[in-house]
Write a structure and sequence with these properties.
Keywords: Membrane, Transmembrane, Transmembrane helix. With 365 residues, this protein is an all-alpha fold. It contains 14 helices and no strands. The chain has one domain (52-321).
C-alpha cells in the first residue's frame, strides 16, 4: 500500500510538472510567434508593448484585489519614496528590454531573435560580477566564452542577418542583464515585500509605461496618429480587430509571467532553467518549419555551443545550490494549490541560491 501511494504521488507530480512546463511553453513560444506575426501587419512595436504593459497592470491589479477580498489581508503598497527610488531603475531597464525586443521583430527572424536573446545570460553574469552577486571563477569565464562564441557562430554569414534588428535585440539582451540583476536586488529587499511576482508586476508596469513613452513619442507617435489603423481609422471593425489583437498579446504576456511563477513555485528554478533550454530548441525548430527561417549547419553548431554554455551554468548553479542545502521549490509556495498560497509573498532568508537560479533562467526568456 505504501509503495502504491508513493508511485501515485510520483506520477501525479510528474504529470503536474509536465502540465506546468507545457503551459509555460504555450505562453513563452506563443508570444514570440504572436508578436512576430503581429508586427508584420502592425508596424508600431513600442505602442504594442505599451498596451501589453497596460493589460498586465490590469490583470495584476485584479489578481491582487481578488486575493485581498478572499483573504481579507491588504497587499503591499510602496511609498512614493521607495517606489521612485527603488523600483524606477528596474522598471526602466525592464521597459527598454521588452520594448527593444519587440522592436527587433520588424527586422529579424524568430530564429535570430531566439538565439541572440539567449545571450542575456552572458550579460546577467557580467552584471552579477559587477554588482558582486557572483564571484569570478574560471567556470564562469568558460560559460561566457561558450555563449559568446556560440552567438558569433550563429550570426556569422547568416543569410537572414539584419544589422539593425540584431543591434536592437542585442541591446535588449544587454539591458536584460541589467534588468534581471536589478530585479534580483529589488526582490531580495525583504522590507519592500515585493517577493511575489504579482505584486512586482503591479508596481513595475506604470513606471515601465512612462519609461517607454518617450521612445514611443519620438519614433512612433506621429506615424501612429496619422495611421488609418489607429487614430485616423475609418473602419471601426478594423480598429476593433487591431485592439483585440493587441489585447490578446497582453494576455499572453501576463500569462507568461504567471506561468513562470507557477512553474518555479510548484517545482524549482532548475526545472524552469532546463525547460528554458529545451524551449529554445523548440522555438528554432518551429521557426524553421513554420516560418521558413534558414538555419545553416554552422548556425546550428553555434546554437549548440551557446546552449552548452547555458547548460554548464545551470549545472554549476545546481551543484552549488545542492552544496548549500539542495535545489528546492520556493519556500511556502509548494504545499497547497490554493490561489492565496500561490500569490502570497515568500520569505527570502533561505532562498538566495534559488532566486539566483530563477533570475538566470529568466535571462533566457
Amino acid at each position: 500500500m505504501g509503495r502504491w501511494a508513493l508511485d501515485v504521488a510520483f506520477v501525479w507530480k510528474a504529470v503536474l510538472t509536465l502540465g506546468l512546463v507545457l503551459l509555460y511553453y504555450c505562453f513563452s513560444i506563443g508570444i514570440t510567434f504572436y508578436n512576430k506575426w503581429l508586427t508584420k501587419s502592425f508596424h508600431f512595436p513600442l505602442f504594442m508593448t505599451m498596451l501589453h504593459l497596460a493589460v498586465i497592470f490590469l490583470f495584476s491589479a485584479l489578481s491582487r484585489a481578488l486575493v485581498q477580498c478572499s483573504s481579507h489581508r491588504a497587499r503591499v503598497v510602496l511609498s512614493w519614496t521607495d517606489y521612485l527610488k527603488r523600483v524606477a531603475p528596474t522598471a526602466l531597464a525592464t521597459a527598454l528590454d521588452v520594448g527593444l525586443s519587440n522592436w527587433s521583430f520588424l527586422y529579424i527572424t524568430v530564429s535570430l531573435y531566439t538565439m541572440t536573446k539567449s545571450s542575456a545570460v552572458l550579460f546577467i553574469l557580467i552584471f552579477s560580477l559587477i554588482f558582486k552577486l557572483e564571484e569570478l571563477r574560471a567556470t564562469l569565464v568558460l560559460v561566457v566564452l561558450l555563449i559568446a562564441g556560440g552567438l558569433f557562430m550563429f550570426t556569422y554569414k547568416s543569410t537572414q542577418f539584419n544589422v539593425k534588428g540584431f543591434s536592437l535585440v542585442l541591446g535588449a539582451s544587454f539591458i536584460g542583464g541589467i534588468r534581471w540583476t536589478l530585479t534580483q536586488m529589488l526582490l531580495q529587499k525583504a522590507e519592500l515585500g515585493l517577493q511575489n511576482p504579482i505584486d512586482s508586476m503591479f508596481h513595475l508596469q506604470p513606471l515601465m509605461f512612462l519609461g517607454l513613452f518617450p521612445l514611443f513619442a519620438i519614433f512612433e507617435g506621429l506615424h501612429l496618429s496619422t495611421s488609418e489603423k489607429i487614430f485616423r481609422f475609418q473602419d471601426t471593425g478594423l480598429l476593433l480587430r487591431v485592439l483585440g489583437s493587441l489585447f490578446l498579446g497582453g494576455i499572453l504576456a501576463f500569462g507568461l509571467g504567471f506561468s513562470e511563477f507557477l512553474l518555479v513555485s510548484r517545482t524549482s528554478s532548475l526545472t524552469l532553467s532546463i525547460a528554458g533550454i529545451f524551449k529554445e530548441v523548440c522555438t528554432l525548430l518551429l521557426a524553421a518549419h513554420l516560418l521558413g527561417d534558414q538555419i545553416s549547419l554552422l548556425n546550428w553548431l553555434g546554437f549548440a555551443l551557446c546552449l552548452s554554455g547555458i547548460s554548464l551554468h545551470v549545472a554549476l548553479k545546481t551543484l552549488h545550490s545542492r552544496g548549500e542545502g539542495g535545489s528546492r521549490p520556493l519556500k511556502g509556495l509548494s504545499s497547497s494549490p490554493d490561489l492565496e498560497l500561490l500569490l502570497r509573498s515568500s520569505q527570502p532568508e533561505d532562498e538566495d541560491n534559488e532566486e539566483e537560479d530563477y533570475f538566470m533562467a529568466q535571462g533566457q526568456q
